[in-house]
Amino acid sequence: MSFQESQNLTTVINARGTFTPLGVSRSSRVVCEAVTEALSNYFIIHELQDIASKKISKLANSESAAVTHCTASGITVSIAAAMTGMSQERIESLPNTEGMADCVIIPSSHCVNYGHSILQAIRISGALPVIAGNKNSCSLEDIEQQIVRSNTCCLLLVSSKLVGCEDLDFSAAVKLAHKYGIPAIIDGAAQDFRIKELIQTEADLVLISAQKYLAAPTAGLVVGKKQLVDAVKAQEKGIGRGMKATKEALIGVLAAVQERESLNLEEWKKSQQIKIDYFVENSSSLNGICASEEVDITGLPFSRVNLKIDSSITRVNAKEIADKLSSGKPAIWVIEQKSGIGELGFELVQTTKLELDIILKRLAELTT
After folding, report:
1. pLDDT tens, position by position, 244-263
2. SS3 category, 26
3. What is the C-alpha separation between 209 and 217, in angstroms, rounded?
4. Are strands 205-209 and 184-187 parallel, antiparallel or unpaired?
5. CA-CA distances (angstroms) from residue 45 to 91, 113, 226, 248?
6. Structural domain range at position 134
7. CATH code at position 221
8. Dihedral, CA of residue 105, residue 138, residue 136 and residue 24, to nearest 10
9. 252 and 274 both lie in a single domain
10. For residue 296, what is the domain's CATH number?
11. pLDDT per residue over 288-308, tens digit each?
């Protein structure tokens, strides 16, 4: 009997994506074995951090790297690093920021909520968020206006499908920050496939979640300029102490990075496309459902499936379908942000062929 069965836990099919309340992702056998070995042995943690820094820097093509507990903590300690540098006195004084530049400029539409508001992640460090532009737009002029008005320690940008306005030129925004001697930090939590691209913006730090498409244990990867990465590491003797990476996270990250380095991306993309095509073809045959492929808006190398539900035919609307899927056995979780306009999304990256067939069968039952 599995642990899930013995504890009577819900069996889940995850068609929602790398969603934290569902445990984010499935780790490979190689990563699981590495973590098991880590748990049964002792290590000198700074040696693991040094190895991880080298391996992650190579993957990202960056000067340096560090591992934190998660990306949310990575945001907080990165901002702390921008305020304190390597000053131990300042590190120990946080979240008291007296005598420090302590304002973080962030575009309004980048004020995302990923379980808590990114604004709170900023404030935990002791810094003050200063919002540029509005929820519909933020220009370089809007950012510059706030930089010159504020006691600015850094510019924080978010690369995520949660961002809700037109694209901001990250390279231009970073260049603007550097014009005023301000470091720029990019939160790219689910963007591990684009890590080199984000580094090419010349951002001082880029933050990535190891547990999303890398499918490592929960950890945050902080990559970028060595001077600021060193200041991030130094936060472990301050507010970052409770945000440190564990031995199993570090070794799991190393195993996941090694797998990514050996990944044939073109073959991987083909395998994902096969699932997309199969799901679109079979769900399109259901009455009242129009299925289509939807390219990732942030540039990740895979698509999702979008279903438009005609409730006049199915006699059940998109929200009701999502609720019935998640309350069934197994529980099937889908992307339901657009359910109010009759649409459901399906991310199939980590689904199996058997799981796809279960989802299609349940959809057929609910819409017949």
Report:
1. 999 999 999 999 999 999 99
2. coil
3. 10
4. parallel
5. 21, 32, 19, 10
6. 42-261
7. 3.40.640.10
8. -50
9. no
10. 3.90.1150.180
11. 999 999 999 889 999 999 999
